[in-house]
Design brief:
With 312 residues, the protein is α+β, with helices and mostly antiparallel strands. The chain is built from eight helices and seven strands; from the N terminus they run βββααββββαααααα. The longest helix is centred in the C-terminal third of the chain and has 64 residues, at 209-272.
Length: 312
């Protein structure tokens, strides 16, 4: 589908009737691109790139003499480790084309329609169209990152309240991986925005470059938020490890106190357990009560001594 913008508004047109003097936006599938890329003057290398199976977040714009091309990996910020969508964009003079390479949730189509209706048709420019489409992809990510920040804060509270769940480390690893994906995701948009700002082939009006600068700043803020959350996760892990160390120290402290109390008793029982003929008190009728009293006195002394030294 192709839409033409003019003083009379936006209208649906056939691709054979595209007027190079009017702003036109198109949305086609990858299979349709195979049939018409030559007609629009696009390189076969761009088609081959669209068909690559492996996707990377850090992609940049390929700048040709009269158009720009880029593939964009689009992920759901709520579930960044799920399968990504892929969309390709072509930008020519007065012409913006979106290619649906892979769209599992129809988000590409939704974002394209949102971009078409963002500005009044009479005021639409090529720069505004490109900006509106790119911005619609990340428009809702601020809320997702805010929810993620609250979830990480809840994990922090569970540490200090001593209510850490068994899968705490797994949850931390999941957040760390998600944030790594998201960081590369937003860096991708920063790179694309910078390439558009460079305007190497003079496709854009100087005044319209402001929109790409705005988009770059938005992507950069999202990336900085992700970096901050990554630092929080790292600090959270250190706090959790510190809590484990404190608990281990407390446990060792208790075991040390118990061992210190029973070591003299072990010495006493070992001493009187040697059945030599001339062992003192061996045949004394009060020998057992005496040893018991001595043991009790030692235990009391050790407890009082440790209390006084504040060992426990």
């Amino acid at each position: 589908m192709f839409y033409e913008f003019g003083p009379s508004g936006m209208k649906l047109i056939d691709e054979r009737n595209i007027d190079p003097e009017r702003i036109t936006a198109g949305y086609i599938t990858l299979s349709r691109l195979k049939d018409c890329y030559r007609k629009f003057g696009f390189s076969k290398a761009t088609l081959d790139q669209c068909q690559e199976e492996r996707r990377y977040f850090r992609s940049s714009i390929a700048v040709y003499e009269d158009y720009c091309f880029s593939t964009i990996t689009v992920t759901d910020a709520k579930h960044p480790q799920d399968d990504e969508d892929c969309v390709a964009v072509y930008v020519k003079k007065n012409f913006f084309l979106v290619v649906d390479v892979y769209d599992r949730d129809m988000s590409t189509s939704t974002n394209f329609k949102s971009a078409l209706n963002r500005y009044p048709a009479s005021t639409v420019s090529l720069e505004r169209l490109v900006y509106a489409f790119l911005d619609s992809i990340i428009a809702r990510d601020n809320r997702v990152l805010e929810d993620l920040e609250f979830n990480i804060h809840k994990l922090e509270e569970s540490i200090f309240e001593g209510e850490v769940e068994e899968d705490f480390n797994r949850a931390l690893l999941g957040y760390k991986t998600d944030l790594l994906y998201l960081r590369n995701y937003y860096v991708q948009f920063m790179d694309i925005a910078q390439e558009l700002l460079n305007n190497e082939n003079d496709l854009f009006a100087e005044a319209g470059l402001l929109y790409f600068r705005i988009f770059r700043d938005k992507a950069e803020r999202l990336m900085q938020n992700v970096t901050m959350l990554g630092d929080n996760v790292l600090q959270l892990r250190e706090a959790y490890q510190s809590t484990l160390d404190v608990n281990l120290n407390n446990t060792m402290k208790v075991l040390t106190v118990i061992s210190s109390i029973f070591m003299p008793l072990t010495l006493i029982t070992g001493w009187f357990g040697m059945n030599f003929v001339n062992m003192p008190m061996l045949k004394w009728q009060y020998g057992i009560p005496a040893v018991l009293a001595l043991s009790a006195a030692v235990v009391v002394f050790m407890i009082v001594y440790m209390k006084k030294k504040k060992w426990w």
